[in-house]
Each structure stands twice: as C-alpha cells, then as structure tokens.
Amino acid sequence: MNGWLYRGRFAPSPTGSLHFGSLVAAVGSYVDAHAHGGSWLLRIEDLDPPRETPGAADDILHALESCGLLWDETVVYQSQRLEAYHAALGQLLLDGHVFPCACTRKEIADSVLEPDKTPVYPGTCRDGLPPGRTTRAYRLRISDETFVFDDRIQGRVRQELAKDVGDFIVQRGDGCIAYQLAVVVDDAWQGVTDIVRGADLLDSTPRQLYLQRLLNVPTPRYAHLPLALNGQREKLSKQTLAPPITAYKEAVYEALTFLGHQPPISMRGAAPAELLAWAIANWDPAQIGKEHEVAVL
Ligand code: GLU
C-alpha cells in the first residue's frame, strides 16, 4: 500500500508464557505490518509487578523468535519509562483533567446497583477529597460524550464513557501507572500508526482515544482481532490455564488459520518464516472473522 507509513507493535504483558491467544495477536500484528511494508515493534508491558511472572518476558521473546516473529528496533520495557508516564500524569493534573481519589475498591463496589457489572465510578472525589480522607489513586475526569471510532475489523464502535466506565484510574493506589495511560504515552512516543490486538481491548479503546486527545497526540488506526476462546468459551490466559506454545510451526499454522488465512495444506510442517511469508503475500484483513472463536488446540 503506497505512501501509508505504517508502524505496528505487539505489546504483551509478561504475566506468563506466550499462549495461543497472545500468539494470534502477535501473528496478526506482524503480518499486517509487513503486508503494508511497515515495521513491527515489540514492547514489554511490565508495569504491574504483582501480576508478573519472573522470566516471562524472556520466555515471550524466545517464543516469538522461535515463531519467526522478529521485531524491528530495540525492545521497549515499560518499567524503564516511568518518567514519561509521570510527566504525562503531571500535565493532565496541571490541566485539571486528573483528580486525586480516596475511595477504596469496596466503597466503589458498594455503590453499584447491578452487582455483576464492573462498577462505574460514582464520582465521590470528583470535586475534592471528602474531609479527613487521603489520596489513594488518581482518576481521569471523563466528559459526557459518545466516543465513536471505525475499527478495521469490528466496524463502527461506540461507547459512552461517562455511562459505561466513569472517571477511570490513571495511577493506582499502589503507585502503579495504569495501562490506559502508559499505552497511550508509549504508542505516541514510538510513533505507532496501527494497533492490531485482541478484541478484549476493544472497550479500552475509547479511553485511549480520550487520553490521546487530552495529551495532544495522534490517534492510530485500530484493528481488533477475534479472541481465541477455550472449550468453556473463556479467553485464553494464564488464569484459564492456557498452555504455553511449544510446537512453533504448528502454532503459527493454526494462528494463521484462526485469522482466516490457512496456508495450503502442502505447507503444513513448513518453517514459521515460510508460513509468515505466505501470509504476508496473501494477506486480506477482510478474511479475518469478527466473532470470538473457539480455538481448536
Ligand atoms: N499489554 C496488553 C495485554 O497483554 C496489551 C496492550 C495493547 O495491545 O494495547 O493485554
């Protein structure tokens, strides 16, 4: 595609080894980047030590290499980028978009009328901390508008942030910078033009669009891939005990098949790099399903 500057990325959190669900996001973002003559960057999102597994980042790097998914440029580690996140947070505070919040998780959960729903922040500290309370977290003040964007795979997506999410956390009570803020700062800093990732992040995108506007950085194009589910229709993850990838050739073949690009049967057993080259030459995002699918593993 001529003249379309393309910088894509894969941004795994090192909570465990690469499993089929994360491989699908890696393969989808890699092939899309290369099919557009773009570059593909790797960022390890190691901002949440309590959820991380020692050695997982190196395991992921090794599995990606074994799958022929070679990244361009130096790997970025979010744990090395704290200064940039604090600078962005400072700017948002100064501009009055962020406010300190004293509420505990329990206080927010108690305010919810429908217990099964993720609690929407009730606005308790929006206009100042209640007397005698101290700051725990920092939240972003949400505007009352409908966010709309056109996803390359999922089509038009709308969300009313005020109703569906509320003022959301940008720095947690334990001091960790929230994913939503870090991802926006880094995608802008790395000049990412195209985000291809799992559809579990579809409903985070409007929060990211809003942060991009407030931080005055460009909005990338988005393509949210169908999610791989297990037999119980759960997202594959460490929590649902998704097995790590070990049979690399087979896994790449299956990931491409899952994304609507099954290589010819004669290529079964081919090296991952050959499978990826075939996919780059035959890439047509219209072939990617929208729906979440059960992965046959
Ligand atoms: N680190 C996030 C995850 O592993 C993905 C972030 C993104 O692609 O925006 O779920």
Can you describe what's shown?
The protein is an alpha/beta fold and 297 residues long. Helices cover 31% and strands 17% of the residues. It contains nine helices and twelve strands. Strand 1 (7-10), helix 1 and strand 2 (39-44) form a beta-alpha-beta unit. Helix 1 packs across helix 9 (272-281) and helix 6 crosses helix 7. The longest helix is centred in the first third of the chain and has 16 residues, at 20-35. It starts with 6 loop residues before the first strand and ends with a strand. The model has no long low-confidence stretch (mean pLDDT 92). The structure holds glutamic acid.
Draw up the topology in text.
Layout: E1 7-10, H1 20-35, E2 39-44, H2 56-66, E3 76-77, H3 82-94, E4 98-101, H4 105-110, E5 137-140, E6 146-151, E7 155-160, H5 161-164, E8 168-171, H6 179-189, E9 194-198, H7 205-214, E10 221-225, E11 228-229, H8 248-258, H9 272-281, E12 293-294
Parallel strand pairs: 1-2, 2-3, 9-10, 11-12
Antiparallel strand pairs: 4-5, 5-8, 6-7
Q: End-to-end distance, in Å?
A: 34 Å
Strand residue content: 15-25%
Q: Helical amount among residues, as a percent range?
A: 25-40%
Structural class: alpha/beta
Low-confidence parts? none
Bound molecules: glutamic acid
Strand order, largest beta sheet? 1-2-3
Mean pLDDT: 92
Largest sheet: 3 strands, parallel
Shape: elongated
The rounded Rg comes to 20 Å
Tally the helices: what do you get? 9
What is the strand tally?
A: 12
H/E series: EHEHEHEHEEEHEHEHEEHHE
